[in-house]
Amino acid sequence: MKIISGKWGGQSLPQKVNPKMRPTTDKVREAVFDILEARIVKDWSGLRILDLFAGTGAFGIEALSRGASQVTFVDNHLRSTKALEKVLLEFELGESTEVICKGVLDAISWLHRQGRQFPLIFMDPPYRQDWVVATLNKILEAPVISTRGIIVAEHDKRESLTALQGFWNLVDSRRYGDTCISFFCFRKSYSYWQNRFSS
Q1: Which of 166, 11, 3, 13 has the alpha carbon at shortest distance from 83?
Q2: What is the DSSP secondary-structure string of 114-136?
Q3: Does residue 170 contact residue 183 with C-beta atoms inside 8 Å?
Q4: Which residues, other chains included, contact 192 with Cβ-Cβ below 8 Å and sequence gap of 6+?
Q5: Is the Cβ–Cβ distance between 11 and 167 less than 8 Å?
Q6: How far is CA 16 from CA 41, 43, 64, 127, 132, in A?
Q7: What is the CATH number of domain 26-198?
Q8: How many Å apart are CA 123 and CA 146, to the nearest integer?
Q9: Where are the domains of the chain?
Q10: The dihedral of CA 68, 9, 52, 78: what is its sign?
């Protein structure tokens, strides 16, 4: 796996140390960032990002490479977070990053208690374990996303997300083989994002 673009474009990302980890392919990650830069992110500078189920940190590091100012990584696997911290230090990203070794639901509660909110959240949980629904429900309870924020969720094409209807709006969804990338926003900001995706 490599960083696609930006300051560290072409450099290798850390190898997975958790055998259960399923890293996002470079092809899918490149497609996600193409959509982000075409529809969502006009300027990466100053952007604060939350990377949930971070694993190797591929999404967050890619954003930092493109100019994001700060990324908070969350993962509950100790060896993965230690490996990620090592890579961030090698890229001299210690001051612009935070690595939290906690379960995602506990981390969301902790960040909410601190009054933290993010305009962009990445979420790449284990497939077919209902983590997308559980995590979005937790964010409703403990909002760590700004009013016009976007959540980018990777999930298996067979996962049912119908339980989210009425609380979140699905702005867009793209399929890459068995992988789906879905973009969610609060219902009250749906018209804003719908216009951005339809233009």
Answers
A1: 13
A2: TT--EEEEEE-PPTTSSHHHHHH
A3: yes
A4: 148, 185
A5: no
A6: 28, 30, 19, 17, 22
A7: 3.40.50.150
A8: 16
A9: 26-198
A10: negative
pTM of the model: 0.93
Name the DSSP class of 148. E
Tokens 């958790």 sit on residue: 18
Query: Is residue 189 a contact partner of residue 148, using CB atoms and an 8 Å limit?
Result: yes
pLDDT tens string 7-52 = 888 888 766 666 566 778 889 999 999 999 999 999 999 899 999 9
145-157: per-residue pLDDT in tens? Answer: 999 999 999 999 8
Per-residue b or e along 109-133, where b marks 16 or more CB atoms closer than 10 Å to that residue's CB: bebbeeeebbbbbbbbbebeeebbb
User: Using CA atoms, how far apart are residues 110 and 112, in angstroms rounded to an integer?
Assistant: 5
